[in-house]
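Question (not urgent): is this output format expected?
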Amino acid sequence: MSHLNLLPWRETLKREREVRLAVFTGASLAVAGVVVLSAHLFMEGLIDYQESRNGYLGKEIKRVEAQIKEIEDLEKKKQRLIDRMNVIQELESNRPKIVHLFDELVKQLPDGVYFTALEQKNDKLTLEGIAQSDARVSSLMRNIEKSQWLTNPQIQLISAKEEKIPLGVNATSAAKKPRSVSSFKLEVTQTAPKSDDLAQ
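Got this back:
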């Protein structure tokens, strides 16, 4: 006897298909959710890692900037010390020059001439004084030209004036009477002789 299936097989098949579709859809959604969540977490991890790197780089940049500023400060201090050392060395090297300058001025000063003012700017000297005559001023200039410590005498001003001060060591009281003298202004360059010249 043949068996007849009287159950509604089409509806059963339809329900099975709907269940399979729902399961497949749910699984797809779950997989998609996992993928999206994984991608999100991965991106968050990359962002956190990059932010941590940025923070580290920021700290290192600040540390290096602080070191650079410290180096710049040290360079400034070093330059100030070098400048001070140069000034001290220059003063030390110029100290004998001052002694020689005044010694040389006394040596080259002829009788009948005396200085009233002396001004120095770098190696330039401006000498002002009184002489008994113009010839005494010329003698002073010739003496300076022969000097090892002074050179290039140039007369800036020379004029006649009345002077009551006695000139010379052996001046008598009569010499205190007003007399005509030459007032002069002379520019001279200070120099230093070579070691060979000093040896002679």
